[in-house]
Amino acid sequence: MKGQSSAETRSAILDLIRSSGSVSRSELAVLSGLTEATISKIVKTLLDQELVIEAGFADSTGGKRPVLLTLNTKARYAIGVSLDARSINYVVSDMSGHAVHHLETEGFGHTTPPLVIKRMAGDIAKLVKRSKLAPGEVVGIGVAAAGRLDASGGVLRRSRVASDWEDFAIEAALHDATGMRVALDNDGNCAALGEFWSQRLPADHDFAVVYMATGIGCGLVIDGGLYRGASGNVGEIGHMTVDLNGPECFCGRRGCLETLAAPAAVVARARANEKLAAALGLEENTAEDDVRADFALIARAAAEGDAGSVALLTESAEYLATAVVSMANLLDLDTVYLGGPGFADAGELYAGTLRRALENGAFMRAVHPVEVRMSSVGAETSALGAASLMLHSHLTPFRAGRG
């Protein structure tokens, strides 16, 4: 940790305590490479700030039993919001990245952004009051949404079609409406941070989260922070080409993963199959919420053994596996998590297909396996990840830069 400022060093020690669960001062010295005197000074500051607490004793190794330190999970809280046309989900997360309160309201639909922001501010105020939190206990609001970010990171650029949300400054508008710090990110990035915080993963555990809702995205955690790229838009796995002769994508290319494997593509193929569409009760429509509902029908039918549904999802999973193997080879990953509503009912089918593809096609398979795991965060992946986004930037700012 040489060369870091005192604030960065303090933040790094807090992160070590977070990921360790419980750890002694002497263990922190070994893990960090700092002297025990320096560690004692930093720990005193963290104790004074009530960010960590002393929690029992470790086993003696011949002398005085070491005091164990752990994160004070009730010291600070963050609010996470998953912004979606179908529903808006809110969570209050403690410092461990676990939800302590939850609220779900109707989505933004066709309502104009200023009116939605006003409603969100009211919902957040109710949630804070219901949670009995003092203003100083809430570090801010994280917002997860689908789409691309502009270079500043505060404006969402919708990826499929232009809408009222195109170029709307969500961060600034919600900050003005609530008076709180606000950070916006795409749902894939938020899902990755949610996994990192809720599982107390160590900073040296690099991994990817493939996030599937209507489309497919990906978040990457490298060296304990989100890998963002030039504009915060790393992880567009949905626009990796998996078939040079495939259908045209809205991005201007052909054969992108989204056009062949995303729920919208699966549903379109199911609707085109008259017999399957009739059996499942699928209707001809294109609304995003209908796509999600129909994909859930297909996934549940596949889980019950419907051959047509199994074939559709297997094809989707094989295309996804092609992209994930390439990503694992490029980044030398050893773990890939699957998260998001798209995996809720058919996650194990996708996971099994990916595992087989990686066992046979990962370049480093003779050196180390690439594990595929279902996200542990559950249905609140995006909202809880958004709260983790704010915890990450507040408590470990040395890892949370946009670039």
Automatic annotation (TrEMBL):
Provide the transmembrane region boundaries.
Answer: none
The residues forming a coiled coil are none
Q: Known SUPFAM superfamilies for this protein?
A: Actin-like ATPase domain (SSF53067), Winged helix' DNA-binding domain (SSF46785)
Q: Which family does it belong to?
A: Belongs to the ROK (NagC/XylR) family.
Stored PANTHER family: BIFUNCTIONAL UDP-N-ACETYLGLUCOSAMINE 2-EPIMERASE_N-ACETYLMANNOSAMINE KINASE, ROK (REPRESSOR, ORF, KINASE) FAMILY
The identity of this protein, by name, is ROK family transcriptional regulator
Instruction: Specify the species.
Output: Gryllotalpicola kribbensis
Query: In the record, what lineage is assigned to the organism producing the protein?
Result: Bacteria, Bacillati, Actinomycetota, Actinomycetes, Micrococcales
